[in-house]
């Protein structure tokens, strides 16, 4: 593990009942691109608040989507996941978690923790890293953190960076020495992977 003072803590929560999970994943990867160039950390702790989750949100988590998100997080952004802390997961979300654990590496599945509320998570993670409006003692609110990210990602320099990615970053498949691992992982080429569910 890493010392908590050397880790990055990320707090996400569902606010919009019409939220599209794929859009949220894309936003997460935009934030990941920013972090690749600006952050130094020994690992990530993700805190996800599912207080407002609906069945509509749950139905969007297909096995393929979970696999792709996990692949991009661990292989493309190479994020060191030290802890995934899920707060207020509804009953219908537990089957999705079981599926996600099947897809994840065992070491990551072991780092996935559930909490009935934020008071319980304060026994594991320091209260001072949490915004004041969810019971923490940090001198900020969830909305203020969200606004700061929005302002950063919408700045002219970062809008240009994202707009130029498609032009500046691409793969020349003719120069690939070994077969692409992506197609094997997602069963498009090569053998299909079998996912066994209980």
From TrEMBL:
MF terms from GO for this chain are:
phosphatidylinositol bisphosphate binding
For this protein, the record's InterPro entries field holds: CRAL-TRIO_dom (IPR001251), CRAL-TRIO_dom_sf (IPR036865)
| Matches recorded under Pfam families | CRAL_TRIO
Boundaries of every CRAL-TRIO domain copy: 47-142
Reading the lineage from the top rank, the first entry is Eukaryota
| SUPFAM superfamilies in alphabetical order | CRAL/TRIO domain
Q: Name one GO cellular component term.
A: membrane
Task: Tell me the protein's name.
Answer: Alpha-tocopherol transfer protein-like
Q: Which organism is it from?
A: Spodoptera litura
What would be the name of the gene that encodes this protein? LOC111363032
């Amino acid at each position: 593990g890493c010392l908590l003072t050397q880790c990055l803590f990320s707090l996400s929560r569902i606010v919009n009942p019409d939220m599209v999970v794929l859009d949220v994943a894309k936003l997460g990867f935009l934030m990941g691109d920013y972090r690749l160039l600006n952050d130094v950390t020994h690992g990530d702790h993700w805190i996800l608040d599912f207080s407002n989750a609906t069945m509509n949100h749950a139905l969007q988590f297909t096995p393929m989507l979970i696999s792709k998100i996990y692949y991009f997080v661990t292989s493309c952004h190479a994020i060191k996941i030290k802890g995934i802390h899920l707060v207020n997961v509804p009953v219908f979300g537990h089957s999705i978690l079981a599926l996600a654990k099947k897809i994840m590496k065992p070491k990551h599945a072991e780092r996935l923790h559930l909490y009935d509320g934020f008071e319980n998570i304060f026994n594991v993670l320091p209260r001072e890293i949490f915004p004041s409006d969810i019971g923490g003692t940090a001198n900020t609110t969830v909305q203020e953190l969200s606004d700061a990210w929005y302002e950063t990602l919408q700045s002219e320099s970062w809008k240009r960076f994202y707009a130029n990615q498609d032009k500046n970053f691409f793969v020349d498949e003719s120069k690939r020495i070994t077969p692409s691992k992506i197609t094997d992982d997602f069963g498009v080429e090569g053998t299909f992977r079998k996912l066994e569910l209980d």
